[in-house]
Specification:
Elements: H1 2-9, H2 14-57, H3 62-68, H4 79-93, E1 99-104, E2 108-117, H5 122-125, E3 131-140
Antiparallel strand pairs: 1-2, 2-3
Helix pairs in contact: 2-4
């Protein structure tokens, strides 16, 4: 008779454990979806930034090329030319960024792109705030063979 009393007193005690396990599994699944969404957004920002850097590296300073020629086999780049090429690339690409910058040392251009994105289940993991995705891309001006 004692064994039946014990089994009836512990009845239902596994329900909280099962609920906690399901809650943890659900949070892990939602976290995986949110992380993959953040990763895909990062890839998109990186692709936009790469394209802008390539466009800027192909924008040679024509005034220097026509007056002084090509010195050292690399096409000369200017900051103004790089920024104009990046702006054109971003305008024609249709992808909006929150901010970007382009810097050059004369032969290589570095472009930094930033976008605020809303990810899946961001309300749960970020408290409803957008996630900042930043990418940096660099490209060298083409060289003359």
């Amino acid at each position: 008779m004692r064994e039946t009393d014990r089994s009836t007193s512990e009845r239902g005690s596994s329900l909280p454990l099962v609920l906690v396990c399901w809650l943890v599994a659900a949070l892990m699944a939602l976290g995986a979806v949110a992380a993959s969404d953040a990763f895909l957004e990062q890839q998109e920002v990186q692709a936009v930034c790469d394209a802008a850097a390539l466009a800027a590296a192909n924008q040679a300073d024509e005034a220097v090329v026509y007056t002084a020629g090509i010195d050292g086999g690399a096409l000369p780049l200017t900051r103004a030319g790089a920024q104009a090429a990046v702006a054109d690339s971003l305008a024609t690409g249709g992808d909006e960024l929150d901010s970007w910058s382009a810097e050059t040392d004369g032969t290589e251009v570095t472009v930094r792109c930033t976008r605020q994105v809303d990810i899946a289940f961001g309300w749960l993991f970020l408290g409803g705030r957008p996630l900042e995705r930043t990418a940096v891309a660099g490209a060298r001006a083409p060289t003359v063979p």
